[in-house]
Structures are given as structure tokens and as C-alpha cells.
């Protein structure tokens, strides 16, 4: 999979982010995307081929693997990376709309098209809410699909066409567990950063609006 588009998207978002937002971009790019591409993808690369059961009944390994891993961890992680980064496109599109509007009217309509204020502030807040919501949804999805954040080395399967309860072994469970914990930790950290940025922006512009009203009343 080519991640050039996601990399360019994160680079573009970085220009219009607050300080907390830039930390979020750094974590997504360095601690999630690069780890995924450099290491995690290879660990899960042959997960189906390396899943073995102690019986060679045709179809038994396939149905057991599908039961315990309805969706591959690594594919779900890739989908999560894409989905939580996509709301940032709203900010990029809004800035592009401002720039095109200035070109169309051939005059300066904004002090800085990339400054977070007015309509762009609402767009930015919506993108933060969406990113936070998607992070939580994927964490819940991981937990529900795999019965918790754990990868056992041995699972017992009694699904047909397996003739009896059979033992199935998962390859490299310790390595996979480490990366799964890393995934959960970085997701939680991103949620905290998003909520912190959301609170910061709401507080900042609430104070700004209050001061404007206070000045108007004094005048």
C-alpha cells in the first residue's frame, strides 16, 4: 500500500494546526504510520499461513482462523489510520475555499486564509470531534472483535468441519501483543490530544468573545 497521499495530507494539515495539533500530526506520522510501514505490517504479513491447528482436516484451519480473526488486526489498523486522518481534509478544503474566494474577488478578504477563526474555527472543531469519535469507535471495535486487547498463543476451536475441539496456534503472539498495546496507547494519546485541543480552542475563543462584548459595553 502506498501511504504518500496520507503523508502529504498530514503535511498540509500541519500548516493550519495549533501547537497541540502539530503534536498530534507528529504522533500519527512518526509513531503510527512509520511504525506500521516499517515493522507492524511485516509481523502480520503471513498471519493466515502461520496459523496452525493440530489437525489437518480440510477447511478446519480456515474456519477457525476466520472465527478468531474476522478482520485482520493490521488491515483494521490501516483503516483506522486512514479514517482518523480524513477529517483533517475538511480544514484543508476550507482553507483552499478561502484562497479561491480571494482569487475570484481579486482582493484580500482574510488577514490570513489559514488562520483559525470564524467559519474555519467551526470546521476545525468539527474535524477534532470526528477524529476523537473515530478513535473511540475503532478502540471499541478492536475490543469487541477480539474479546479484549490480547493475543493468546493458543486458541481452542470446535467449529465444523473440525471433528472435535482442536488446538490452534498463533504465530509470534508476543510481538503482536506489543504492537497491539502500542496501537491502543497511541490511540488513547491521540484522543487526549484531540480533547485537549478542543478544550483549548473553545476556551480561547470564549474568552475572546467575552472580552469583545465587555469592550463594547464599556464603549
From TrEMBL:
GO terms for biological process: cell-cell signaling. It is a multi-pass membrane protein. It is found in: Cell junction, Gap junction; Cell membrane. GO terms for molecular function: gap junction channel activity. One of its GO terms (cellular component) is connexin complex. Keywords: Cell junction, Cell membrane, Gap junction, Membrane, Transmembrane, Transmembrane helix. The chain crosses the membrane at residues 21-39, 77-97, 118-143, 178-203. It comes from Orthonyx spaldingii (Chowchilla). Belongs to the connexin family. One gap junction consists of a cluster of closely packed pairs of transmembrane channels, the connexons, through which materials of low MW diffuse from one cell to a neighboring cell. A connexon is composed of a hexamer of connexins. Residues 42-75 form the Connexin N-terminal domain. Pfam families: Connexin. PROSITE patterns: CONNEXINS_2. This is Gap junction protein. Residues 134-201 form the Connexin cysteine-rich domain. It comes from the Eukaryota.
